[in-house]
Amino acid sequence: MNTREKEAYLREYSILKSQGKPFFPYSIAKDAIMACVVMASIILMSLTLGAELGPKVDPTTTTYTPRPEWYFFFLFEVLRVVKPPSLTPLAAIGVPTICMILLFLLPFYDRSPERRPERRPIAMAAAFFTIAAMAFLTYEGANAGSPNQIDMEAPEAVVAQGAANLRTWESGKQVVAQSGCLACHKIGHNGGTLGPDLTAIGGRLARQAIARTLVNPTAPMPAYTELDEKKRDDLVEFLAQLKGGEH
Amino acid sequence: MANLKPPLPRALRPKPKGPSEDNGKAKPGRKEKLAQKGISTIDWIDERTALSGGARWVMFRKIPRGTNWFYTLGSASLFAFLSQAVTGVILAMYYDPSATRAYESVRYLTNEVFLGEFVRGMHKWGSTVMVILVFLHMGRTFFYGAYKYPRELNWVIGVVLLILTLFMSFTGYLLPFDQRSFWATTVGVAINGTGPLVGPYLNDFLRAGPEFGVTTLARFYALHMLVLPGAMAAMIGAHLYLVARLGTTAPPWLKADIPADSRKDGT
């Protein structure tokens, strides 16, 4: 905007302003009605949705899946989608930081005097793209579960064994995902590298050996004695079926 | 100073006194006496603070015609902030920011205190409402082009307020100290730690050390209760001052019908 355009805007605005109505009581009345609507929705949400308190904090637990507040889901999802560890900092902080800087500097790179949305196609396209991206990531983040997810299809051998076996396999996968195994172990494309890779553990260890390791593991690994019988059986079944190479 | 004050609306102007009044004979009624007391109190304050000019400047400034309900989103965000402040103060009366007793104090507040869960629910869901309102308010500002000259600085302050709002909800999330809040915060802080340059330092600062410890909760409590609300209040003050100073934007579709003597009109 050059000086002439600035002056034109100020002149135009001062006329529009002088033709308007005073803030009190006209705008104040609208704001007060809106405040009542806000108050009513907060009270209604508090009454219907409540404020449940989860179980007490336990830093030693390994079975808890962390979830942020819903309006951080999009950030959470960016972190989840980008799998390679070298890209994680870029996804978690790099992209949001760049977005924030772009947001801060908006009035300094968008300097055209035009204010009508239908005459600012680039700005509108960018805005709709941003809103769509955030909505999509929020939706995905809400449905995705947690970073502890295992992206693996049931191997054909398991599918061939019938529906009951497949159900056990899926349930075992769930237990593994929720029990913090991936913090150290790699399974397929997910998980850490601190402990041994479990992608093909079924080929190396027998079922009983896996079960024994769970109860009586080597030093840094915690013992999974508190898992209930059913869950532990499913877990062992799942791990025993991992022969590697199916994906 | 006098030319800064917009004139009082007709309804609020003092009525000129008739010839029959003020001659000492008619005794003033209770109502008149009370009104007189009120006026003299305001005069007393104004004589010492000279605030009435500023108050008139804020309250009776003109708002361009054509403003619609989307223009109430800003004041609605402010109202949500005030609601959070009030419910937050009530929660603070029961909350104990020590790692060993925090959960128990929240449990007591939720289950035992009269209307405790209701107030905590208002604070919890109020944060969601506030985040939504702040985003909608930003959307209105963007689509109406209201961030353009001369309001660029107010946009920047608004983005600061958005970030502070998100940090508020991030720090508040840990305070109930249940499993959910603890693990979400652990992950959140770890994400912070991966940031460029300042990441690891920010990480250590937030956790009050290399590990999640006893002092972490106190640190989040201090940020959530003192630092962030203080910063937000100051920023909101600046935001509102600039709104009053620069005026509410007119809808972008509105064109002024310029009168012949437009140059006299500068306000």
From TrEMBL, chain A:
<feature type="domain" description="Cytochrome c">
    <location>
        <begin position="167"/>
        <end position="243"/>
    </location>
</feature>
<dbReference type="Pfam" id="PF13442">
    <property type="entry name" value="Cytochrome_CBB3"/>
</dbReference>
<feature type="domain" description="Cytochrome b/b6 C-terminal region profile">
    <location>
        <begin position="13"/>
        <end position="142"/>
    </location>
</feature>
<keyword id="KW-1133">Transmembrane helix</keyword>
<dbReference type="InterPro" id="IPR036909">
    <property type="entry name" value="Cyt_c-like_dom_sf"/>
</dbReference>
<dbReference type="InterPro" id="IPR009056">
    <property type="entry name" value="Cyt_c-like_dom"/>
</dbReference>
<dbReference type="GO" id="GO:0016020">
    <property type="term" value="C:membrane"/>
</dbReference>
<dbReference type="Pfam" id="PF00032">
    <property type="entry name" value="Cytochrom_B_C"/>
</dbReference>
<keyword id="KW-0349">Heme</keyword>
<dbReference type="GO" id="GO:0009055">
    <property type="term" value="F:electron transfer activity"/>
</dbReference>
<dbReference type="GO" id="GO:0020037">
    <property type="term" value="F:heme binding"/>
</dbReference>
<feature type="transmembrane region" description="Helical">
    <location>
        <begin position="121"/>
        <end position="139"/>
    </location>
</feature>
<feature type="transmembrane region" description="Helical">
    <location>
        <begin position="32"/>
        <end position="51"/>
    </location>
</feature>
<keyword id="KW-0408">Iron</keyword>
<dbReference type="InterPro" id="IPR051811">
    <property type="entry name" value="Cytochrome_c550/c551-like"/>
</dbReference>
<keyword id="KW-0812">Transmembrane</keyword>
<dbReference type="GO" id="GO:0046872">
    <property type="term" value="F:metal ion binding"/>
</dbReference>
<protein>
    <recommendedName>
        <fullName>C-type cytochrome</fullName>
    </recommendedName>
</protein>
<dbReference type="InterPro" id="IPR005798">
    <property type="entry name" value="Cyt_b/b6_C"/>
</dbReference>
<feature type="transmembrane region" description="Helical">
    <location>
        <begin position="90"/>
        <end position="109"/>
    </location>
</feature>
<keyword id="KW-0813">Transport</keyword>
<dbReference type="GO" id="GO:0016491">
    <property type="term" value="F:oxidoreductase activity"/>
</dbReference>
<dbReference type="InterPro" id="IPR036150">
    <property type="entry name" value="Cyt_b/b6_C_sf"/>
</dbReference>
<keyword id="KW-0472">Membrane</keyword>
<dbReference type="InterPro" id="IPR027387">
    <property type="entry name" value="Cytb/b6-like_sf"/>
</dbReference>
<keyword id="KW-0479">Metal-binding</keyword>
<keyword id="KW-0249">Electron transport</keyword>
